[in-house]
What does this fold into?
Amino acid sequence: MPPKGKTDNSAYQKLKKDIAEDSIGQLYIFHGEESYLRDFYLGRMKEKLLPAGMEEFNLHTLSGKEFDVKKLQELVDCLPMMSSRTLIVVSDFDLYKGDKEGLIKVLSDLPDYVCLVFVYDLIEYKADARTKLAGVIKARGSVVPFNRQGQDDLVDWISRRFRALDHDIGTEDAKYLMFLCGDLMNGLISEIGKVGAYAKNHRVTRADIDAVATPQLDAVVFQMTDAIAAGNFDRAASVLGDLFHMQEAPIKLLAVLGKQLRQLYSARLALEHKKGTAYLMEQWGMRNSYPAEKLMNAARKFSLPWCRRAVIRCGEVDLAMKSTGASGQELLVTFLMELAAPVKNHPAPANR
It folds into this structure.
């Protein structure tokens, strides 16, 4: 078992080893948030197992909607043509529903030439360790979670992707891109493409990123709290106006803002108790240090009473949105003005 709070990547690392050493097994279950990695390694398996031009004969696919054990058995029984292996890919079928006994029989007796992969994309993988089926999967196959990558791995990957586009990017700017656009490779790959196409110089700059990258909602809302911390209410109001123009629902914006205010409060408490970035990351389950560092820096500009009051008022505004007929946009604008006023009139004390 991995240490508490750590992700177990042993199955993922073994998959990479299996592919590199041409020792791909007979049964895999792919699941997890990082669809880019899942699709990448499924593609690598196809390259290794299926001779070029023979994919039509040796690659068999089955969707969850059309799945039944009899069809699976028929595909398993299909001998490879001009190849030593066949690859069967079953998409979005819940293994723990339906004919478990039939599945157990098929999975327990997979021929050596078969590689069977169950891919979970649109549905969540939920194993039931108490069942006999789970025991067969553990004995005969490998359950591979494709988890969000850690900060260092993502920075390296972003750098490699930019190098492939004949560009270079610094570590801090790579972290900024992750903060702005999220830390899922599937989303980042398109943003890297846009930035790479836009950048005029070999070195990608933050200005290049800001010019064309599409920020995620959390990053945009953080711009509001940054502007409030800097005493720039006009900037904060402008960001909120842009979000309204994009037709983001006020209740959704308040939910994101509320989360950030709670994180800001946690960061301020961490400073009060001489805690650092690592403590904040642990409290909020953050994989990457960059957003935690931004929160800690922002917290230095706010007082503890301000943070506490902001969290309380956010809850009150949320209740008002849900229980009164008041305009959500008006409530948000009023709340933003209320947040900005104490920062102007009562700056945070010097950092302890």
Observations:
- The beta strands are 27-31, 59-63, 86-91, 114-119, 142-145, 168-169, 203-204.
- The mean pLDDT is 91.
- The first strand starts at residue 27 and ends at 31.
